[in-house]
User: Which sequence fits this backbone?
């Protein structure tokens, strides 16, 4: 019984931390405008090891996930599916841009991964600079 409860707790914790990614760039911008949130635009590709680390380690951190859910609309763009990159400069993956609800860039873009603590600080800095 104890093992079952532990397993359920782990499953519920990982489901709680999961981010709700916008289905597309356009829908992410529309959602951000409607909810008065910031767009967290992540350019990635399937073979990007650091992108996968960010998804499995950083975004699953409860504090990061809750902060993103509260203030951001996350949008992932696979550069192999969208090679035009919607006109953004992408120098490696992951590359992040942060946009206000009107689509205007906030602060500087970010290239590469980060620790959960480092990424959370970046998110807070972007929010403060909004």
Assistant:
């Amino acid at each position: 019984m104890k093992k079952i409860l532990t397993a359920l707790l782990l499953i519920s914790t990982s489901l709680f931390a999961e981010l709700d990614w916008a289905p597309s760039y356009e829908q992410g911008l529309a959602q951000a405008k409607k909810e008065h949130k910031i767009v967290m635009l992540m350019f990635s590709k399937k073979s990007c090891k650091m992108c996968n680390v960010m998804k499995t380690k950083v975004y699953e951190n409860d504090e990061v996930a809750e902060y993103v859910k509260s203030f951001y609309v996350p949008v992932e763009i696979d550069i192999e599916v969208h090679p035009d990159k919607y006109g953004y400069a992408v120098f490696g993956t992951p590359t992040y841009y942060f946009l206000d609800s009107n689509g205007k860039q906030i602060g500087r873009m970010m290239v590469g991964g980060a620790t959960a603590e480092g990424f959370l600080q970046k998110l807070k800095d972007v929010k403060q600079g909004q």
Helices lie at 2-17, 25-35, 49-58, 62-71, 116-128.
